[in-house]
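Worked example (supplementary).
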Amino acid sequence: MSIQVTVDIVIFTIRDSRLKVLLIKRGIPPFKDAMAIPGGFVLENESLDAAALRELKEETGVDDVFLEQLYSFGDPKRDPRGRVVTIAYYALVPAGHSIRAGSDAAATAWCDVDDLPKLAFDHRRIVDYAIERLRNKLEYTTAGFKMLPEQFTLSELQSVYEAILGKKLDKRNFRKKLKLLGVLKATPAWRKTGRKPARLYCFSAKKFEKLKDKGILFPF
Amino acid sequence: MSIQVTVDIVIFTIRDSRLKVLLIKRGIPPFKDAMAIPGGFVLENESLDAAALRELKEETGVDDVFLEQLYSFGDPKRDPRGRVVTIAYYALVPAGHSIRAGSDAAATAWCDVDDLPKLAFDHRRIVDYAIERLRNKLEYTTAGFKMLPEQFTLSELQSVYEAILGKKLDKRNFRKKLKLLGVLKATPAWRKTGRKPARLYCFSAKKFEKLKDKGILFPF
DNA sequence: ACAAAAGTGTTAGAATTACACCCATGG
DNA sequence: CCATGGGTGTAATTCTAACACTTTTGT
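After joint prediction of all chains, the assembly is encoded as:
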């Protein structure tokens, strides 16, 4: 039973108010010069999560971000070199988080999810699946907050939701819902880069835990 | 990289108005005589889905039921014999669906999810994860209908929801919601086994597709 | 002075929840 | 005749969705 096991990672971030995926240009066949998502083999004494985290760190230098298993892909023909089952993960990198370019990766790029090039292997399917999962998770988890630094403005948060959902939201309803949920703490700081200063907020994990117990959602 | 790949399947059904899981008593070490969920190796030229379907059929004789990938488990120590990554699946067998006992399985049993014995390997974790997934899927998919034969009474359907969610639902609200959703078709047939005859219904896939497009849920 | 983004409430409609009685049948 | 499960509607509450103007600052 010579099946090889890899992990592949769909790494998301927000940039220019758009949802982006990290892609790498392949240097070797198969699919030489095509874009692909980062990935690699699971080592002998490594859990799947650990393998994904290692690959993430190798490729981006970050290991302090949200990382979750997505789905496993194991079509016998998905890799022309032989039988490879991949456990796909997705990661959420906060906007503005600085990324160190990976080892072999002079050719990494943040690519708009609405404008993906042809991808190697079945990576297009994996990315599409990850986007779908992310959109769903937005509604009942705090995934949205994980795409922002610790402090953020309400407009920035709304922009994250809009980028991921791919639609505009009503500003007043969005803020009303957040106030009602009570998961944000106002900080004393202001963002002064825009036209008008905006209050900075941070996420209150304690309050969120209480809401979860009651089954309350983030229904945007 | 000698990692072995298996599939394991959490097979659910409803019996005696309770949510049940199919367990098999292991005949060989490790965990000899412990209960476990069915599973086996992924073959060389077989997709993951095909492997799961094959195992399901070997164990139960059925291959016409709902079957979906759940999650992959790959802790290096999860199998004492060596490195085994398992792709877990879950299946929904309609109540009353007749099951042929599996090959090696004189010792299969439908076990109440609220009263599970100690399970082999990390199977308890897999089953718990499957239950959680099933509960969630109930809210936004037609998983509930997949646990019933083609025709069913409204009380039977409600009983499925109650068994999976582990709580009582209000009869009138339940029926009102179904009527509003319009996903049921009344059949001319009646169930005459209970005290009073009950109308039999069947699921209307066409109407459900329309609802899905609009993002409407089954919020019980 | 004006362009750009921040901030702020109300109202109508829809969905959710709580709740109690009569009916048909088999034992 | 009575125990069991089938069947039905309304009212209060909560949630959702639509909607526009004023404020502050940088240019």
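Two points are worth noting when inspecting this output. The longest helix of chain B spans residues 123-140. The interface with chain A takes residues 1-5, 41-48, 69, 71-76, 83, 85, 87 of chain B (CB under 8 Å).
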